[in-house]
Amino acid sequence: MWGRVALLKLLWVSVGKGEADGSSRTPFEQVFDISGADPYELETGELGNHWDAVCFDFDYPDMSGLKLIPQAKRRWPSAPILMLTLQNSAELAVWALRSRVFDLLTKPVSSREINRMLERVLQAISARGAQKERRPQVSTAQLPTETRYNPHSPATSRLQAAVAHVAKHFLRPIPESEVAHLCNMSPSRFCREFKAAFDVTFVEYLANYRMTQAKRLLANPSMPVADVAVAVGFSDPSYFTRVFKRQEGVAPSEYRAATIFEAARQRTASGG
Fold this sequence. Notes:
This protein is α/β, with parallel strands linked by helices. The chain has helices at residues 39-44, 63-66, 68-75, 90-98, 111-128, 157-169, 176-182, 187-198, 202-218, 225-231, 237-248, 252-269; strands at residues 8-14, 32-37, 53-57, 81-85, 103-106.
């Protein structure tokens, strides 16, 4: 599909991944001449000034890693910034949007997603050639709260595939046997390794993930609790309420009221 395209210069920054195996880069080599870099090189300004695009390859983004993206945008304001990550959340997506990330992809990435992204990047680079030089316009977005936390111990690449699977499919039931097969493990081994890595069982992790999404949606006072339940994978609103209350200590409606009250209090305190 991309054989007709002359290779473009791509700076590939691996963040918090240890020794990169290069597997994530492979599909991009259809379009880009890739030069690898580490965060230290980016922070010290040892890199060149001309790149057609910059790709940040994360597993689980943390605060220090995400701070590199506004730096890159200021240095190369015309270059599309791409992000690859195993972690998928609405909060991270909003942060990426506000930080002017061109595209955010959740690993494992399908060939269809990669081709769609590459098509958009090529269009942007082509359009850039007809525009005047852009001045840096980067606002500092508040880093997602979740970037302060990491797994209890380093997770294997196979377990990271399970985490990515939850982020993409949490709206439906996910049996442990399904993710165990995805990770090429027996169900018993998967359960042991997941608990050792994350300090919670897979079932608890999935429930926590759904509750995190639910709390985000409950901040919208116009969204009925029943709709929130469906939006996070619960077909029975009553069961959702029981699970939410067991985990958070209050019913969803009480959590929403407290959240709205706190937001109003903060606005008043700040004079807004």
